[in-house]
User: Which sequence fits this backbone?
């Protein structure tokens, strides 16, 4: 990167920072928001909300057939029965991967994502390459993630165009018979719950 | 509106590039913007559909060239200016100079934080029976609203099958324009890849959207 380019990036960033600071000052001075409350929102996302919430749900579904059935029938209600998982709000739809069908979630119009289950979405989920191609060339997108599926597997893409939120229930990895929920949850990756990856295999480096 | 935000099926944006061990925020200001949007939404200054609409109406070159949270910042500024919550001279000077505009739910304080950590409820009592049921063939209407809509261009005019009925929800097309919630039935409608992308499409793909009843007609 040239020095000129570097300076340019730096000054643009500073301009944005100043603009954000100015807006927060205005909102505070006008009495609309309390800055400590903004701090608390950020802290909550940084500490409480993340893919570990979704991973617990998936691990429970892998070990408890009644919970799995309830989860697929009404995701919101089933997650609501787990006191230790983040409250999910309404309209969570859980979709199950099988040997015949692979599910993948996108929001082509903006960035809709199950925040309560997975945390804030990664940049790639919100960016043009994924939003544009996921609905037209899902196998190509999966290849970008290093994921290959058998060519006869049906790929179902869920475009999150309303306030429904989708969570993929990936297939339980082989070789995990007898594992506890807590052990299984360690294998569940964020991408496996979006449909752009698989759970980790037992014994694979984390 | 047929904006650049409606990206499904566009070509030329390149490969998806996942970032290993991506941080939650790439700069401290991103977190402040996220928190301001959540907080101002909770004060009742705007609803989620209006905030989406303001990001969609950014000029196309700005939308495409801005990072995610930069779009949130620009959309938030425009929205608050348009609705009279802040003034141009305030943005220019970085300080409040006008008295505040009353907020529907009052100032956002520490006690309000837990409230924004739970997703809102969008289900509403049905004003009329559902027109469609799972299994019905439907066509996404060939419509091009000039304002906010959640019917992506790539399904318009195409035939799919109703797969799920989600009940009645707030209608974003109305809510975004602050024209009331106008609840409508919401369905998951699934399309074959070949229906959307033609005979060259991968025949093993199916794509669904969640479509409000006014977007659909019998097929």
Assistant:
């Amino acid at each position: 990167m040239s020095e000129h380019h570097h300076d340019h990036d730096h000054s643009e960033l500073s301009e944005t920072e100043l603009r954000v600071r100015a807006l927060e000052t205005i909102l505070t001075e006008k009495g609309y928001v309390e800055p400590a409350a903004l701090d608390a929102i950020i802290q909550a996302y940084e500490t409480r909300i993340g893919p570990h919430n979704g991973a617990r749900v998936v691990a429970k579904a892998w070990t408890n057939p009644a919970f799995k059935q309830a989860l697929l029938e009404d995701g919101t209600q089933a997650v609501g029965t787990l006191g230790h998982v983040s409250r999910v709000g309404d309209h969570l739809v859980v979709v199950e991967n099988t040997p015949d069908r692979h599910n993948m979630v996108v929001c082509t119009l903006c960035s809709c994502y199950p925040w309560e289950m997975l945390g804030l979405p990664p940049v790639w989920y919100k960016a043009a390459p994924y939003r544009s191609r996921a609905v037209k060339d899902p196998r190509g997108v999966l290849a970008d993630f290093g994921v290959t599926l058998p060519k006869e597997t049906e790929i179902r893409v869920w475009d999150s165009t309303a306030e429904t939120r989708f969570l993929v229930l990936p297939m339980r990895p082989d070789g995990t018979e007898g594992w506890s929920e807590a052990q299984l949850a360690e294998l569940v990756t964020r991408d496996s719950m979006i449909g752009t990856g698989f759970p980790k295999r037992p014994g694979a480096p984390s | 509106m047929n904006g650049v935000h409606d990206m499904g099926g566009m070509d030329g944006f390149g490969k998806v590039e996942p970032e290993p061990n991506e941080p939650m925020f790439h700069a401290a200001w991103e977190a402040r913007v996220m928190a301001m949007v959540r907080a101002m939404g909770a004060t009742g200054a705007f609803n989620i559909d209006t905030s989406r609409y303001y990001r969609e109406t950014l000029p196309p070159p700005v939308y495409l060239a801005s990072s995610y949270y930069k779009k949130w910042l620009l959309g938030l500024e425009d929205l608050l200016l348009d609705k009279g919550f802040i003034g141009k001279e305030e943005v220019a000077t970085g300080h409040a100079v006008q008295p505040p505009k009353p907020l529907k739910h009052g100032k956002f304080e520490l006690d309000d934080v837990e409230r924004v950590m739970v997703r809102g409820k969008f289900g509403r009592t049905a004003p009329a029976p559902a027109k469609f049921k799972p299994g019905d063939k439907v066509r996404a209407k060939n419509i091009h609203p000039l304002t906010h809509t959640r019917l992506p261009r790539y399904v318009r005019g195409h035939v799919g099958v109703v797969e799920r009925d989600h009940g009645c929800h707030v209608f974003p097309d109305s809510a975004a324009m602050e024209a009331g919630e106008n609840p409508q039935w919401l369905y998951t409608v699934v399309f074959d890849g070949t229906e959307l992308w033609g005979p060259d499409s991968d025949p093993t793909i199916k794509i669904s959207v969640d479509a409000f009843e006014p977007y659909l007609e019998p097929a």
